[in-house]
Amino acid sequence: MDEPNNYRLVVTRVLAVLSCLLWSVSTKKDKNPTALVTIGILAQPASDVMRLQYYHPKENWTFVPGSYVDWIGSTGAMPVLIPFDLKQKDLDRILENIDGILLPGGGADLIRLDDLSKPTPYQISMDYIIKWAMKRNDAGKYFPLFATCLGFEGVIISATNSTKTLECDLDDEVTAHSVQLLPEFDKSPFWKEVGFDLAKRVFARDSIYYTHSCGIRTTSWKNNPILMKEYNLLGTSVAKNGIEFVANIEHKKYPIVSNQWHPEKNPYERGHLYHFLDRSSDATTLMTKIAAKFVNPIREKGSPKDVREIDALVKSYFVSNLMAEYLPLSFYERVYTFQRYNYYE
């Protein structure tokens, strides 16, 4: 056989091998393309201001902002809204039959006002879920957790097992500013999938929404051996009062990503309170890609089920079974609510 024919034969064989490899990769990622990914979103206690807008304001309620429901729903996953005060056996059953968990932002107390050394029942529930997710991954079952703002604060209390870790003098309510990225950001598996270039463009602008008084200073983080051991510090920001605080973290071992800011706001909260938010293509694309990169690996690494096979208790908390309420709030376009299951003293 002459040399040109030899060359063509080699190229043909190489292309055939590459084609097979690409096919196998795509097949692996789409191993169950009709499966429905289910993401739990933890409902939190409603504030007094919110309760006054209900038909029975003296009763206790829990809620989930509709923007988080939309954010998760944009990925094709089904949000499963979980009241934080379920009985443990019911909470366990839900966790065992969903594919990941979102700990959202909000205004719930994490530390008891009558004893600042003790966590509230809501923080206790978050701590239980965080540790459950870690055990699930230790058992070889992929179960990602994403936490934002209030969820971020719960993560650092859980990691250190101390309410004193939280610092509540940041005064950074209803504002947008940038994230200053640290060298570890370029090593992040999660943000690599989201897209470094896009993230860096948006983080460099005053495009990131914050509303918090609690968090943790960068100096406090770096002086905490537990946090430094368990998490990579990826980014910081500066509050309106000039305090530098931790903005982005990622667990070194588990698929846990957390930030002090709100990715759901830019694309899914459009009320007058948010008139200043960056709704550019870059900003809204980044925020929706964050949700996608949280959910999509489950289709490859997890075990999502056909909707007909999903546990009945999980289905009962599908967002499609709950009616959204359009309360006259400036904070959220709409909320999903539950009457409290249990009452805590």
- Decide which structural class fits the backbone: alpha/beta
Mean of residue pLDDT?
90
CATH homologous superfamily placement: Class I glutamine amidotransferase (GATase) domain
Distance between the termini: 87 Å
Total strand segments: 12
What number of structural domains do the residues give?
1
| Shape type | globular
Tell me the number of helical segments per DSSP (H or I, 4 or more residues long): 13
CATH architecture assignment name: 3-Layer(aba) Sandwich
CATH class descriptor = Alpha Beta
Our Rg estimate from Cα atoms comes to: 22 Å
- Measured as a percent range, the helix fraction is 25-40%
CATH topology: Rossmann fold
Largest beta sheet, briefly? 10 strands, mixed
Description:
- The chain is α/β, with parallel strands linked by helices and 345 residues long.
- The protein has helices at 3-29, 48-51, 66-73, 88-96, 121-138, 150-160, 189-194, 196-203, 218-222, 225-230, 265-268, 281-301, 312-316; strands spanning 38-45, 61-65, 78-83, 100-103, 145-148, 172-177, 180-181, 208-212, 231-238, 244-251, 256-259, 335-339.
- The strands form 2 sheets. Strands 1, 2, 3, 4, 5, 7, 9, 10, 11 and 12 form a 10-stranded mixed beta sheet that branches.
- Helix 5 (121-138) packs across helix 6.
- Mean pLDDT is 90; it is low at 17-28.
